[in-house]
């Protein structure tokens, strides 16, 4: 596969929702996309990777309300968490935006005007599910029930994962609100719709003939949607709703699936503006683009029709570039089953990073991803075996067994005869590149590991460890064998660089400098120094996997100690409390109500809790008093409370206590707790349910 002329490629992954943390299922897509982008850059193409947080909708609004803070505070916190998780797995975005940006609001308005100008927007009253407990109309994704077509249980309110049917949430059998657990009520509300039937001819032609979709996806759309008139698309939601209010329809807000894909363009605008460019150079049809830009979307199969029907309809109406490829992947199962919190297989990205190497998961996903829409399984035993066999036993082993003999002399001045091994692997480069281009990373890794097998067979046959013991007479041959092995190792790492960027960087430090081009796999390197070898990969320890699974399980609720039952007297018992605490610490002198009023006791929420390593009794707490008010408080509760279990808990703080400079930092208040004679711990005071951060105790 010869390198094609220079390409301009814009790549997106689906926008993660700002109401939850990244988990291993999400990472299938972001790692897959990152590998594709790194491959294109290694081939010399201009390739940008754009993403953003999907920030709007009912769930964010409800969460913010429950936590007593603003929606934008919630999404800012989640943005930081998402970016940290992505960085931990070496997922490198060129720009990471937000659908709540000014650019996205403006671009939504431009596309909306295009739809209006085409006469595609209509207004109609609809029956919509309303959560009487939460007090909001329910978006499709926040209703679950039984599919009206195939009767599969626990399906979302817009589409069935089992049979692929789409429907209105009101069509579900036995619907339940996922926000409150309440049974929704049917209420009437005005909604705005985009008529898709006038675009059906365009959609039929684009989905079936453009080559943008895999054949099975095109067939699915033809059989399930395009064989009958398309229903109008409901694109608005009534207040209350966190999102963009529609400029020409006060009181109506764009549904999240209208503004979310526009976020791809908004992220492009923000990225381009920082470089003195414009988003139109990537998304506008015609013009002076040379060569024309390619648009590649990576998504999961659960959002197929949003990206293959609604989104192309929006782009076509606005006269913008249609996707070159919509690359759709399946779901992740763990040990052959859906991810489960109870079994410890619903694993957050952060939990994984605390136990295992992210490179191991990147490689395992690559070895499983074939570019089709089938689900992939993370079998934990196979995960350990494959990573240990391939990365440690085959790839890194090549360098660990031979590089040390080149530390003093460096590589041979001319490349020795290797029986055609390097040339054969170089010839495989076209097939490996074609597999990467098709997102068939499983095929690419098979070809790469075949080259690793041949290289290891060479080392086994030459037995450099014996040459090293043979003395000066074998020194030249030892250097030749090690030169071949290290070159074959580096060639393999060039091919693996899109999957394992950290290994590629460390290999460059070992020999040859940074890996920057696919063409570095075509010619061996000679006469260069070799740095002292450092471990490049660690074996996956089954004990660490077991610890990961255990850490992912939900913590069992801690039951409060049950007080001893009073002796039975036949009459209603009087409560009898021990006298020791009061005797040990008698009541203080009386104070007036004016004295008491000076102490400002407030409800606060613990946002973060961590041990102070150099202090025996202190935990460092970050608490919220509501809105943007934050305090750092050092509390003497270490050893009595698990820091992780404190996060999210409501407590009472003395909010107007003068700050105290301590050895470990500035303490800006006091958390109210109880302790004393006869106590076995320090007991934090918690307000009754319904209290909110910032409320004053009276």
Report on this model:
- The protein is α+β, with helices and mostly antiparallel strands and 698 residues long.
- The longest helix is centred in the middle third of the chain and has 22 residues, at 441-462.
- The strands form 8 sheets. The chain has a 5-stranded parallel β-sheet with strand order 3-2-1-13-14, sandwiched between helices. Strands 19-18-17-20-23 form a 5-stranded antiparallel β-sheet. The protein has a 4-stranded antiparallel β-sheet with strand order 5-4-9-10, with no helix packed on it.
- It starts with 7 loop residues before the first strand and ends in a 14-residue tail after the last strand.
- Among the domains are: 119-251, Methionyl-trna Synthetase, domain 2 (Beta Complex); 349-521, Isoleucyl-tRNA Synthetase, Domain 1 (Orthogonal Bundle), CATH 1.10.730; 581-684, Nucleic acid-binding proteins (OB fold (Dihydrolipoamide Acetyltransferase, E2P)).
- The model is unreliable at 560-576 (pLDDT under 50).
Summarize the structure.
With 698 residues, the chain is an alpha+beta fold. The chain is 37% helix and 17% strand.
Task: Write the SSE topology.
Layout: E1 8-13, H1 24-42, E2 46-53, H2 58-67, H3 71-88, E3 95-98, H4 102-117, E4 121-131, E5 136-137, E6 143-146, E7 155-156, E8 173-177, E9 185-194, H5 200-209, H6 215-224, E10 233-234, E11 236-238, E12 252-254, H7 256-273, H8 280-283, E13 293-300, H9 304-318, E14 325-329, E15 332-334, H10 349-353, H11 358-368, E16 376-378, H12 380-400, H13 421-427, H14 429-437, H15 441-462, H16 464-469, H17 475-496, H18 501-510, H19 542-552, H20 580-584, H21 593-597, E17 601-611, E18 619-624, E19 630-635, H22 643-646, E20 650-654, E21 660-662, E22 665-667, E23 670-671, E24 673-674, E25 683-684
Parallel strand pairs: 1-2, 1-13, 2-3, 13-14, 15-16
Antiparallel strand pairs: 4-5, 4-9, 6-7, 6-8, 9-10, 11-12, 17-18, 17-20, 18-19, 20-23, 21-22, 24-25
Helix pairs in contact: 2-3, 4-7, 4-9, 11-12, 12-15, 12-17, 13-17, 14-15, 15-17, 17-18
């Amino acid at each position: 596969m010869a390198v094609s002329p220079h390409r301009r490629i814009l790549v997106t992954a689906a926008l993660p929702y700002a109401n939850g943390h990244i988990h291993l299922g999400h990472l299938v897509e972001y790692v897959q996309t990152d590998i594709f982008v790194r491959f294109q850059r290694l081939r010399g193409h201009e390739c940008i990777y754009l993403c953003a947080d999907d920030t709007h909708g009912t769930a964010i609004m409800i969460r913010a309300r429950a936590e007593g803070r603003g929606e934008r505070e919630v999404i800012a916190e989640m943005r930081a968490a998402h970016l940290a998780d992505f960085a931990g797995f070496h997922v490198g975005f060129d720009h990471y935006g937000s659908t709540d940006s000014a650019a996205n609001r403006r671009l939504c308005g431009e596309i909306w005007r295009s739809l209006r100008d085409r006469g595609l927007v209509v207004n109609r009253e609809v029956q919509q599910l309303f959560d009487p407990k939460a007090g909001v109309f329910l978006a499709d994704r926040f209703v679950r029930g039984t599919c009206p077509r195939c009767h599969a249980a626990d399906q979302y309110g817009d589409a069935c994962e089992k049979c692929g049917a789409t429907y209105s949430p009101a069509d579900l059998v036995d619907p339940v609100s996922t926000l409150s657990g309440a049974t929704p009520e049917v209420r009437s509300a005005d909604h705005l719709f985009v008529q898709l039937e006038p675009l059906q001819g365009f959609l039929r032609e684009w989905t079936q003939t453009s080559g943008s979709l895999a054949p099975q996806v095109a067939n699915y759309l033809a059989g399930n949607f395009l064989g009958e008139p398309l229903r109008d698309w409901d694109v608005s939601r009534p207040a209350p709703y966190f999102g963009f209010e529609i400029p020409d329809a006060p009181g109506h807000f764009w549904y999240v699936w209208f503004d979310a894909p526009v976020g791809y363009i908004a992220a492009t605008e923000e990225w381009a503006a920082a470089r003195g460019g414009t988003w139109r150079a990537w998304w506008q049809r015609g013009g002076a683009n040379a060569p024309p830009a390619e648009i590649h979307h990576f998504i999961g199969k659960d959002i197929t029709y949003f990206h293959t029907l609604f989104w192309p309809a929006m782009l076509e109406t606005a006269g913008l570039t249609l996707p070159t490829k919509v690359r759709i992947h399946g779901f992740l199962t763990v040990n052959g089953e859906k991810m489960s919190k109870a079994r410890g297989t619903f694993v957050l990205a952060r939990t994984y990073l605390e136990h295992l190497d992210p490179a191991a998961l990147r490689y395992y996903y690559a070895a499983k991803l074939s570019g089709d829409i089938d689900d992939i399984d993370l079998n934990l035993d196979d995960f350990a075996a494959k990573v240990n066999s391939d990365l440690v036993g085959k790839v890194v082993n090549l360098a660990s067994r031979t590089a040390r003999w080149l530390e003093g002399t460096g590589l041979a001045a001319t490349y020795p005869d290797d029986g055609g091994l390097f040339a054969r692997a170089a010839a495989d480069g076209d097939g490996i590149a074609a597999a990467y281009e098709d997102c068939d990373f499983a095929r690419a890794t098979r070809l790469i590991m075949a080259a690793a097998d041949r290289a290891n067979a060479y080392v086994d046959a030459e037995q450099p460890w014996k040459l090293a013991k043979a003395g000066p007479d074998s020194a030249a041959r030892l250097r030749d064998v090690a030169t071949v092995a290290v070159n074959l190792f580096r060639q393999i790492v060039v091919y693996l660089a899109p999957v394992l960027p950290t290994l590629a960087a460390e290999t460059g430090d070992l020999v040859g400098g940074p890996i920057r081009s696919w063409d570095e796999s075509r010619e061996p390197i000679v006469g260069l120094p070799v740095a002292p070898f450092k471990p490049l990969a660690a074996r996956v320890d089954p004990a660490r996997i077991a610890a990961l699974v255990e850490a992912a399980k939900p913590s069992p609720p801690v039951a409060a100690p049950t007080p001893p039952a009073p002796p039975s007297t036949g009459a209603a018992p009087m409560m009898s409390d021990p006298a020791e605490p009061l005797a040990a610490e008698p009541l203080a002198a009386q104070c007036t109500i004016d004295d008491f009023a000076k102490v400002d006791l407030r409800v606060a929420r613990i946002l973060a809790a961590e041990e102070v390593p150099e202090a025996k009794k202190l935990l460092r707490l970050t608490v919220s008093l509501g809105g943007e008010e934050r305090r750092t408080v050092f509390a003497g509760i270490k050893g009595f409370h698990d820091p992780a279990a404190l996060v999210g808990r409501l407590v009472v703080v003395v909010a107007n206590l003068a700050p105290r400079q301590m050895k470990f930092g500035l303490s800006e208040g006091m958390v109210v707790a109880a302790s004393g004679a006869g106590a076995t711990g320090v007991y934090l005071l918690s307000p009754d349910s319904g209290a909110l951060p910032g409320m004053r105790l009276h």
